[in-house]
Amino acid sequence: MSETKVLLSLIQEHLDSFLAQRRDDFVAISPDLSTVVSYSHDLLQGGKRFRALFCYWAWAGALGNADIKQNEAQRAQSAEAIVGITAALEMFHGAALVHDDLLDQSDTRRGAPAVHKRFERLHQESNWSGSHERFGVAGSVLVGDLMLGWSSEIFGNALLKSPDTSIETACREEFSKMRVEVMAGQYLDVVEENAAMTRPADEAVGRANRVILYKTAKYTLEAPMLIGAAFAGASPSLLRGLSAFAIPLGMAFQLRDDILGVFGDPQVTGKPAGDDLREGKRTVLVALTRESLSTSVGRIFDEMLCQRNLDQEQITFLQQTIVGSGALAKTERMIEELGDESLNALESLEIDQRAKDELRALALKVIDRES
Domain 164-371, CATH 1.20.1740.10 — does that match? Predict the structure, then answer.
């Protein structure tokens, strides 16, 4: 079994074991709480695990050139701890997905009902009083908050095995920074969805890029890599080099996600075709389209994006408008250019060659993925 497969198996075991313990604690309080843990557990099955993998290979790559050298015993303890660190990142990502689906009013996640929709169904099937939609909102907010807390708990427990106090401090700082930046990016995303029509269309691309820098690029790739490398005792220069690799790749990741959100195959993405359009997402793809349209067509385009019940004919119109404007082709070129920038930065990194090869393979998956 490859090292990556072993890691993924260990992460899943770690998450399963952690949630099994929490299930026992919760059921002891009330059987009603079992669904809270079950929904969390179900969400954490599978997924691409990009954050965990980039974190791990940054750690593995930095070990040989770290400022703080670790003896054999410390390395063995670090290898055990990095599983907990990567599991914490996956738990944090799960929390972000729960809240993101609620904010976007997205009904599905990975081909299954989103957590808030599962709570709605529970309310309906139980014949409880009140609004099932409000119950869905309440349940998913609490599950997301709970998973945020659990991610910090798992992360803190892993850092107890840190080989050095300065390493522990550096990791905590990176983790805290990640949490703040992703929330900032998420809020800017919400603001843009609601305020875009009141702001200059020729500034929309810049605003969209700022959103994806903080909501996605830093959180998805830079932060996990800096956490992993910091846990290996990486030097400031190596951390800067990893950021130079991670940021453009993270931007490319989100641009690919934007394309899939409009043109992706539902059988592959697990989301309905054109879902981002129904959610009114103000992505770079949309911003590039909008800045090329005439005032009259742009007004129609904006008005349609503000609707939440677009039919297939309207989705098709918006898709054709995006393609016809040249925005899709521009976004594809941006992905290619960002990918090249990232891979060039990777080549200059002084890290273990095996880790560099793994990071290159992961980068290509990010750029060329279909889901």
Answer: no
